[in-house]
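Homework help board

Subject: predicted structure for assignment chain

Our instructor gave us this sequence and asked us to write out the predicted structure in token form, then describe one feature. I got the tokens but I'm not sure how to describe them. Can anyone check?
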Amino acid sequence: MRAVVQTVSRASVTVDGTVVGAIADGLLVLVGATTADSPQRAEQLARKVWHLRILDGERSASETGAPVLVISQFTLYADTRKGRRPSWSAAAPAETAEPLVEAFAAALRDLGADVETGRFRAYMLVESVNVGPQTLLLEV
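My token output:
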């Protein structure tokens, strides 16, 4: 699994004109999965995100209680090496990716995180104000 993690002062996701998830002073996490991923990898990635020391004072979300907004993002596995059209062949199909992203969010909740999410297979408008700015790519 792969995640892009950003520290944000605020972030939200809107579907069909309705805000379905929003946080303040926390982490925005875009998550992608491949067919080789598993619920165990989702849990491993969740632990890594939750304990990552990137907030003020080199503290983690686990130490500060910072909320997390999780957005499914199959485009993290785009292959752009050839031509001008990305290939999505490395990304897990929706039927495989959806339970993995849900397992990631559930693992964060089990660790004590306040988690908001986007909506899978929906056209989402994601807004965020990046702090730092800090944007990290994590893989497990």
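Reply (TA_rk): Your tokens look well-formed. For the description, you could write something like this. The chain has one domain: 2-139. That's the kind of observation they're looking for.
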